[in-house]
Amino acid sequence: MCIRDRFTILQITDIHYGEDDFKDFQTSQLVISLIRKAQPDLIVLTGDAVSGYAWNGDPGFFFNNWARFTSPFTITNTRYAYILGNHDGEADLTREQIFDLDSEHPLSLMDKADEITGVNYFHEVQSSYDNATAPPSILWFFDTNREGCRNETWSWGCVEDDQIAWFRKQSSLITASNKNTYDLAFFHIPLQEYMDLWYDGETYGEKNEDVACPRVNTGLFDVLAAQGNVKAVYVGHDHDNYFGGFWKGVELIFGRKTGFGGYGPAKGMLRGARVIKLTEYWDKDELKVKKNDWMLLEDMSIEDNTKSKSDKKAEKRQTECALPNRPISHFKLVIMLILGFVLLSLAVGFAYSRCKSRNSQQLKLGDI
Q: Across the chain, what does the average pLDDT equal?
């Protein structure tokens, strides 16, 4: 991949194929229109391409929906980088099997670092200048997994400690020879710091639902900030949120919900995508990169990153991540089933006793 003065990324997110054929058709048509309008060099799909929870048990569910959601990339001959969301691996393929499938697509950049949690990878964006000695930008793709973080089972997934160690090692090796890379990170589930940004930072866009982040803060943001090469983070997951802003030197940004499947978007909010444009330039003898991004909406209009209009002081501060439905342990499930059976038996017994009593009374009346 090469910047060629400018390098354009189209971030699409939460397209949720597999719930309804017509919705999938609508999503495919929208994605094709977005690609043709933005003319990206790369599409980044930040998770939940497939609604794994909609699987009906038939074999081939994920493959068939994968073929559908990749068809706009094939039709437009556009390279793409796919990151797994929490719902992608809930059907008939595991995350490993999804990697095996998608990495065979001729337009896919999906890769996998060995011996760490999930499907994580990075790609260098090369310079168009012949005298450049190093890539000016690197794109990092993290797997935030499904549910559970460290030892906390009741939580959204997160970037685990071994993934963070992998990033720190790889990033340090790269920055040792080139300290001026302008890197971007992409993943599905937002960090806890998105809550801090909304209430304590200067933001653009809007927050229409609670941030659904991991219950455990594994320190990824602090590592990104300390390493210094990742300038912006792009996520999905929260279909109704599309805010962003700078927090401690790193820009935290929500994508725009793209698909017709899944919940949302919020009332009055159009579907769309983020267009990210990287531009390289020389500053004396140093090759540098600057970034600009905006939202391309489903009516093909452009929405700039204008200051948030919400009255944050008037709203109740969110202090904890919105969490998935609490999992039920096997023990509790067995107890609930036993109680349910007992209650059902009692109800049936009570109904039978009343019916028997009525029949007895009717018989006595008939004998009179």
A: 92
